[in-house]
């Protein structure tokens, strides 16, 4: 019964033009005005993030000091579209947002440090220096230590300083051990 009443109410509102008139009034209503500095600083609009600065990177005098970052987050909340028609209040909703507006992070009041040159993201020269510092230099150090170490290990392994040699041959079902007698060079003297 409630669903039927709601659908009849909607049909009555559409036929009398109240809903259409409320939507027209909402469309005619001007958006809230913003100050120039606030509209320029809203980086979510994908404008130039440094447009509010002087050409040398310093801030203008009006935005200097404690007024630069405005601390009230309610300034950035959009006003509701409330329409009064024939004594009735209507809240006109916004049209659905697209994926860019829904999933994109609107960045407002991003701090900007004009004299800081060590910005990593997008700084290709700095990234190349870091790659050399943390990859190539340790690689050269490790190779410089490992190559002489392995050559000495293999050189020690090739020395024959034994008194007896055992030759072991593996057959299919058994092992063959042959012991070669050492040459007695010391006893001949």
From TrEMBL:
GO CC terms of this entry: membrane
Record field: compositional bias (Basic and acidic residues): 47-68
Catalysed transformations (reactions): 4 Fe(II)-[cytochrome c] + O2 + 8 H(+)(in) = 4 Fe(III)-[cytochrome c] + 2 H2O + 4 H(+)(out)
Domain Cytochrome oxidase subunit II copper A binding: 161-189
An example Gene Ontology molecular-function term: copper ion binding
Transmembrane segments: 133-156
Region Disordered, annotated ranges: 43-68
UniProt keyword list: Membrane, Transmembrane, Transmembrane helix
Keyword Acetylation: no
Protein name, per record: Cytochrome oxidase subunit II copper A binding domain-containing protein
Naturally occurring in which organism (per UniProt): Noctiluca scintillans
